[in-house]
Design goal:
mainly alpha; two-stranded antiparallel ribbon; 66% helix; disordered N terminus
Length: 322
């Protein structure tokens, strides 16, 4: 019989918001201990089993708790040790799509890729479209894309979910792991500048989202993908977002430093964190300069072109925008 009681809290009570609050406030479940607890892994498998049989209360309560702790403490503390394969083998499509963002996709291999992604896609098609679903889908999508074994199995049309642009917190594993240059190349390969714009806006403000490899890829993208005269709207959006990144207003950068202080990091670790943020800011400044230069060049071309040529430019770029 699986965990009728978890730390003295009956399962029936766990399925309520009151029970969720009791777990959160329990002194034995501070965040470094929560993710190490075998009980919660087994409880979650039990909840997945119950959800598949029509009782969603415990499953939904655990996800509420999981999201709250993600927002408070960061995803690296709170991933279940259960594999995606282990959970999805027991999960309904709904449970698969809602829990996918909290599982560790990077350990999965290509042999399981098609089955896992197919189950996840089936869940997307049956769960009502909400902001919460969009957040879960985009977070999971970016995590799947970060696994080179799984990335080739992602259907091209699923990337359009990036255009939902859900609010992804700084602790979101998908956003923080999606800046790899291979992922940038994959999104560029879709030949859809709208999706590419949404992708860049979503991941730019993530921790560690710019490095020497993806910086070069994004710089090339600016000159090759956003240089058309009909790309002005996309360039404006990206320039605005870059301005927010430079000013630190686009995400929880200062909040991250506050969180690090709460976790009692050493002085040298805090200094490394601050230096990393300064490095990111310098990269954002350079990208903004490049994109503004591309925009100026496109504007000059448009200003010099006769009216009929302008129409041709726009028709060509509309195909490119997708």
């Amino acid at each position: 019989m699986l965990y009728r009681v978890l730390f003295g809290i009956p399962l029936g009570l766990i399925a309520t918001r009151q029970g969720t609050d009791q777990i959160t406030n329990n002194q034995y479940l501070s965040f470094p201990q929560w993710h190490k607890t075998k009980a919660i892994d087994q409880l979650f498998l039990y909840a997945v089993h119950r959800e598949q049989r029509g009782d969603t209360n415990i499953f939904d309560a655990i996800l509420r708790l999981r999201k709250r702790e993600f927002d408070d403490f960061g995803s690296h503390y709170l991933l279940w040790r259960l594999s995606v394969s282990e959970v999805f083998a027991r999960a309904s499509p709904r449970a698969a799509v809602l829990s996918g963002r909290y599982l560790c996709w990077r350990q999965e291999q290509s042999a399981d890729a098609q089955n896992l992604i197919s189950k996840w896609l089936a869940g997307i098609s049956v769960v009502p479209h909400t902001e919460e679903l969009a957040e879960s889908v985009v977070d999971t999508l970016l995590q799947i894309a970060a696994n080179p074994h799984l990335r080739p199995s992602i259907p091209a049309d699923i990337w359009s979910w990036l255009n939902e642009r859900p609010s992804l917190s700084f602790t979101c594993r998908g956003r923080s792991s999606a800046g790899d240059s291979d992922i940038v190349r994959t999104v560029r390969g879709l030949n859809n500048v709208g999706v590419l714009t949404s992708y860049l806006i979503l991941v730019w403000s993530g921790s560690g989202s710019l490095n020497s490899n993806n910086f070069a890829e994004i710089r090339a993208s600016f000159r090759e993908d956003f240089n058309g005269v009909g790309m002005g709207d996309h360039r404006v959006e990206l320039i605005q977002q870059l301005g927010l990144c430079i000013s630190g207003e686009s995400d929880e950068r200062s909040e991250r430093l506050d969180l690090d202080l709460d976790l009692d990091l050493e002085d040298n670790e805090l200094q490394d964190n601050e230096e990393s943020l300064q490095y990111q800011r310098a990269r954002y400044i350079e990208l903004k300069r490049i994109l503004q230069q591309v925009d100026q060049e496109a504007t000059k071309i448009l200003d010099r072109a006769p009216a009929i040529s302008k129409c041709r430019f726009y028709l060509f770029d509309r195909k490119k925008r997708g």
